[in-house]
Amino acid sequence: DTAVSQTPKYLVTQMGNDKSIKCEQNLGHDTMYWYKQDSKKFLKIMFSYNNKELIINETVPNRFSPKSPDKAHLNLHINSLELGDSAVYFCASSQDPPSTDTQYFGPGTRLTVL
Amino acid sequence: AQKVTQAQTEISVVEKEDVTLDCVYETRDTTYYLFWYKQPPSGELVFLIRRNSFDEQNEISGRYSWNFQKSTSSFNFTITASQVVDSAVYFCALSEADFGNEKLTFGTGTRLTIIP
What we know:
Oligomer: heterodimer
Structural class of chain B: mainly beta
Low-confidence stretches of chain B: none
Low-confidence stretches of chain A: none
Order of helices and strands of chain B: EEEEEEEEEEEE
Largest interface: A-B, 30 and 27 residues
Radius of gyration of chain A: 13 Å
Distance between the termini of chain B: 41 Å
Helix content of chain B: under 10%
Order of helices and strands of chain A: EEEEEEEEEEE
Shape of chain B: globular
Strand content of chain B: over 45%
């Protein structure tokens, strides 16, 4: 049983396209996150949601729009993709209170923008 | 603002040697949490340990051990008798117990290569 799953694992697309990455967790956690890992392996938070409410938005361009239909899902939609969006995107989840609990990560989605 | 520094970008050791990965953190909070994650070549992020700021006891888990010292703001990770499977990028991370700031701040990672 996969705790935090993401689809797709790989995503190759052209500049200007719109794409989505899905994330689901079956851990019963209340908080979910999106992190971006760049080509130098640097990991940085993008968003966090607690009980479907946005908690953190780390100055991410508004081309990125997270959507949380329920506590177990946090999808990431990206409009008008740019070359600089190429990265590995990780979804994570943690129990409440999120700031004190361990975050468990999905397998990552490698996005390549051509 | 919270910050994590992993000064060692890359380390290579021969199998069975011991190796220590350094982590230095900065925070203004008195309550915070420190983590280590492993990212093997397959790419996933694997949780290794979580330690709160009030517990300075060292921890040992098999070949892994962690040394937390608040006096030097360090949370170092030692692998004893290293194995090829330990080859990975290791990240140290910090989380402040601060509502509205529920995020992990990661260091830049240390790439560990174990030479057979």
